[in-house]
Amino acid sequence: MKLKTTGLTDFIDGNKIWETVNSTTRTEAAHVHDILDKALEAKGLSLDDTARLLQVEDPELSEALFETARKVKQTIYGNRLVLFAPLYITNECFNRCAYCGFKDTNKELLRRTLSADNIRQEVSVLEKQGHKRLLLVYGEHPKFGADWIADTVRTVYDTVSDKSGEIRRVNINCAPLDVEGFRKLHEVGIGTYQCFQETYHRETYAELHPVGHKKNYLWRLHAMHRAMEAGIDDVGMGTLLGLYDYRFDTIALLSHAAELESKFGVGPHTLSFPRLEPALNSEMAYNPPYPISDARFKRLVAVLRLSVPYTGLILSTRENRQMRRELLDLGISQLSAGSRTYPGAYSDPDYDRPDVQQFCIGDNRNLEEVIREIVEHGYVPSWCTACYRAGRTGEHFMELAKKGFIQEFCHPNALLTFKEYLLDYAQAGTRDMGNALISNELKGFAAKRKNVVADRLVRIEHGERDLYL
């Protein structure tokens, strides 16, 4: 595939971003409170206001920021939390990203690409745990084109376990394709296409990506444009924190989101913001040039929730258990659980292997352990995929979300998928906790909605599956 970059513009104005950051380093407390009051309207924030909140350091103002984020999160998403797992298909790669264990010069990394049988085996393991939503992850190598990726997606969808197991949503994290390639992925029914720019700072990007297709900044920058032109409504973007100044990359990420909204009428479905973690034979991964502290990381998540209130925020298992728990209240709406980061990992009894994984993870708990903790804190685990089957995606989804759609439909559907999990996969203790949570949640519904949901819960108990509103 030839990378055609003629006519592609760099819509990320680095000088303007730095002007925004530098002009907002000192903001009076009263101004911060004004911004927070505005944020409570759940209409989003300007880049200027976002930059001001990113640079809040005062403890009292930080707590005010956190409290505002909690309110907005609760108003829009309630206590629903979407769970998924990454499934690595190949770690073969011809890029030379300085921070990644998959880089082409890492001769100690054991390379592996899953066959169709391998994929079926991995999916079966994940289905038997209760997973319904997967993110397929691919190393970037030219020998793996759109046709092959599409075949792996079909294999995942076609694999069904002996319980109620089938994967109902496959998201993709792969190298940027041309429009024709993205169209092939759209035709096999992928959900979200995910691709991270890593850093938007051109000079840093060039230094960290010296070899491979990924070194072409503009080709990667316009990946979401091509995906959306191909009909993929939902795209997911992100930055890798630690490579450059987090304030610059956050404002640039939001500028990218605004660009998509201006071109296509809708911005990204999700944003991700992983922190750099240790990786085999990467000095940079062990010593990030721009480390971001836990305190700043928490503020970043809260600010993103206020800046783009209806955009999903994803948290991976790079973070440890405590940090993941704290960030749920501040804005996270999707959470990976039981993650392993190399091909064949879920079938591997000795899964903690630095010689094959992309990076080290901070939360090694399995899916049920994660579920038990979030239920203890009042969250409803969700594997709902109703919107994608009903065509409620992209701009249509955002329009509905702003009218309270998430609470009206997504919350009930979360209870239905959770009920399936409790019946088909959960241990007795988890089942008891979960059923108690569902009973308590039903009390909050209006009578008509309560009756509809209760009826479907009974039908699920009697053996029906995949019911949704």
Question: What can you tell me about this protein's structure?
Answer:
With 469 residues, this protein is α/β, with parallel strands linked by helices. It has three domains: 14-73; 79-387, TIM Barrel, CATH 3.20.20.70; 398-461. It has 20 helices and nine strands. An eight-stranded parallel barrel has the order 1-2-3-4-5-6-7-8, surrounded by six helices. The radius of gyration is 21 Å and the shape is globular. The model has no long low-confidence stretch (mean pLDDT 92).
Number of helices: 20
Helix content: 40-55%
Structural class: alpha/beta
User: Quick one: biggest sheet?
Assistant: 8 strands, parallel, barrel
- How would you state the average pLDDT, rounded? 92
Radius of gyration: 21 Å
Query: Can you say what the CATH homologous superfamily of the largest domain is?
Result: Aldolase class I
What's the topology here?
Blueprint: H1 14-22, H2 29-39, H3 47-54, H4 59-77, E1 80-90, H5 116-129, E2 133-138, H6 146-158, E3 169-173, H7 179-187, E4 193-194, H8 202-208, H9 217-221, H10 223-229, E5 235-238, H11 246-264, E6 270-272, H12 283-286, H13 294-307, E7 312-315, H14 321-330, E8 334-336, H15 367-376, E9 380-382, H16 386-390, H17 394-401, H18 405-424, H19 428-442, H20 447-461
Parallel strand pairs: 1-2, 1-8, 1-9, 2-3, 3-4, 4-5, 5-6, 6-7, 7-8
Helix pairs in contact: 1-11, 2-4, 3-11, 3-13, 4-13, 6-7, 13-14, 15-19, 18-19, 18-20
